[in-house]
Amino acid sequence: MASDARIGLVHRLRIWAIGRLRRSRFLPAGMPDKLADESRLGRRFEQQVMLYFPTTLDSLYQLRPWFHALIALNAVHPVVCVFKDSRTARVVREETGMDCVTLARYGQLDEILSLSDVKLALYVNHDPINFESLRFTSIVHVYVGHGDSDKGVSVSNQVKAYDLCFLAGQAALDRTSTAVMLYDAPAHSVLIGQPQLDGAPAVTGRPDPRRPTVLYAPTWEASQPSVSYGSLETHGVELVRALFGDYRVVYRPHPLNGVIRPSYAAADAAVRELADRVDTSDVPIEQSFADADLLVTDVSAVTLSWLPTGKPLLVTTPTVPYPPSPLMDVVPLVAPGAPFAAVVAEHLADDPTGPARAALLEHYLGDPTPGAATARFIAACEDAMALRDREWSARRVAGATGP
């Protein structure tokens, strides 16, 4: 009996210590604090649309571009946003005004959804924890992604877990059809354009009359070596040093730089020291674009976001193979050790690939008319909910007339 009492005491102390850690400033930013909204437990969701985002603040860059579209959807079809991290929920609540709920355990989500009539669930990443929500068969599950790109990681066998995928343009559908085996991409895909671009804040450029501005916006080192397209270690310092003086260099670091390799973090720090300006996530990427005359980036979603600007674009040569794509067939690649200043000067004076890039705009991004993609996103959500209702009714009829 005494032994049982000691075990019980140890268990209670452990639970107490975990709770204190989760509420302290020492909990790592990349670890969900799982501080559930106690007042919401056991209560149904009144909304019929759910956004599921189980990751933490360091991944918020994936969700933030969708705020505009989600707010627009919320105005006609209320959305509940479900998190596992209360810090992330608080930021999203403050920035969007939407209903944000933190649930610590799968059982809490199970209890609430069993009481609710949620018809549609949206996901912006492939986090494995998504499967806690994907289990529910009464919901249409839709992957919307967090940006289209020619990265190898932009197509994944994980798309098979979702009922539908909302894709930007024909390029994304072609990429998925080619890369994912045993998957009927046209049947499970809806082309909506990029609503993220509709929410861009109104900005004006701040040109430097003395020298052109080059924006250097590399991607991170990636958690998978096969898609490690980041150029910081191969190009970063040498590129900025070569441009410094003749050009104003704005450096826009990826939020995850250095989370895998300390050497990548060191390269990031070195480039920050050399650049004329560093634009972190506090600066809208649209402002970085507006201030720049030319972009140097890696194989990433930044290339597609830049396309509507019509301004010159250079992509660094990656050290790993990348999938073939119409855009990468057109854009000039800059190898390590290239005469960076001369290459930049050449493309600022005469942008030879400008017409070819312009011809690919709709292929990658769909209808670029402001507001068109957001309208398509809302319509696609409505179609998905209607599809769920038809399927749900058919099941109930089959159950009533079956053996």
Q: Would you kindly provide a written description of the structure presented here, covering whatever features stand out?
A:
This protein is α/β, with parallel strands linked by helices and 403 residues long. The chain has 2 domains: 25-198, Rossmann fold (3-Layer(aba) Sandwich), CATH 3.40.50; 213-351, Rossmann fold (3-Layer(aba) Sandwich). Helices cover 43% and strands 12% of the residues. The protein has a 7-stranded parallel β-sheet with strand order 3-2-1-4-5-6-7. Helix 6 links the parallel strand 4 (120-123) and strand 5 (140-143). Helix 3 packs across helix 18 (372-401) and helix 10 runs parallel beside helix 11 (262-274). It is globular. Residues 13-18 have low confidence and may be disordered.
Layout of helices and strands:
Elements: H1 2-22, E1 49-53, H2 60-63, H3 67-76, E2 79-83, H4 86-96, E3 99-102, H5 106-115, E4 120-123, H6 131-134, E5 140-143, E6 164-167, H7 170-179, H8 185-188, E7 189-191, H9 195-198, E8 213-217, H10 232-243, E9 248-251, H11 262-274, E10 277-278, H12 285-291, E11 294-297, H13 301-306, E12 313-316, H14 326-330, E13 333-334, H15 340-349, H16 354-359, H17 361-365, H18 372-401
Parallel strand pairs: 1-2, 1-4, 2-3, 4-5, 5-6, 6-7, 8-9, 8-11, 9-10, 11-12, 12-13
Helix pairs in contact: 3-18, 10-11
